[in-house]
Amino acid sequence: MSYLTDYLTPDELEVNQLPKWLKRPIGKSSQLSQVQRIIKARQIHTICEEGRCPNRAECYGQGTATFLLLGSICTRSCAFCQVSKGLSPSTLDPDEPEKVAQAVQILALRYVVLTSVARDDLADGGAQRYVEVIQAIRALNPQTLIEVLTPDFWSGKNAAQAQKERIAQVVSLTPACYNHNIETVERLQGPVRRGAKYERSLDVLAWVKTLNPSLATKSGLMLGHGETEQEIIQTLQDLRSVQCDRLTLGQYMRPSLEHLPVKKYWTPGEFEHLGEIARSMGFSDVRSGPLVRSSYHAGQSKD
Fold this sequence. Notes:
- The chain is α/β, with parallel strands linked by helices.
- It has helices spanning 10-15, 29-41, 47-50, 56-61, 96-107, 127-140, 160-171, 189-192, 198-211, 229-241, 268-281, and strands at residues 45-46, 64-69, 73-74, 84-85, 111-116, 145-149, 177-179, 217-223, 246-251, 285-288.
- Helix 5 runs parallel beside helix 6, helix 6 (127-140) packs parallel to helix 7 and helix 10 (229-241) runs parallel beside helix 11 (268-281).
């Protein structure tokens, strides 16, 4: 641990030592290697791998995976995220929709989550690519359910109407669930989600419900950035005010010393308590626990 002492204060060093409830086995290497081999051969990406999700072996074993569209470089610089960042991401791969669809077929995935990096450099923010991938997956895998976890598709000042039109493109294909993460409480949006806005994220979820009231919506927070319980509760109330149906609450774990330090490790008991509060507010499906991530048990959600 000596190398950490060069970068962290004593308080940061203590909080960056993982508590026992955040340590878990990596899972079956055969399941991991099979998926890794297939996605590498097709030069596609999953957030499971790019984000080093602790649950990826479990999800693979349950026939679920989360594909990362639009390349592997994000045009925003969120201070918590493992995904690579840059202002000049690669050009879009025209074969990406077919490659993802083929991977779904080979892996016999029953439930797929489609997410992406933010691509503020693209005229439509990448909305059309979601449409193309959904259509390609359904052509080869008609029984596979598809959930989307989209960015906000924002592209500049006074862009609300264009943003809504991009969201409408995705909503028109009626995915199994429309997820857009608010990530943290309102006070911490600036330092945690650089380039994103609290109200803008609430607008995304509200617009989805306006466009299709029967489409399930979902959002999530990563705890540990210094938020208080009351701030979390206020955020949950704000999400319910735009009729958000499903919720995930998980623990933020610092990917590297270049990312924001962890301010607090919330205990399993505290996550259970917050989950009960969320259910009492009317969320139809709540996943709350230290290792919960946006797509955790996504295929098992019920409204």
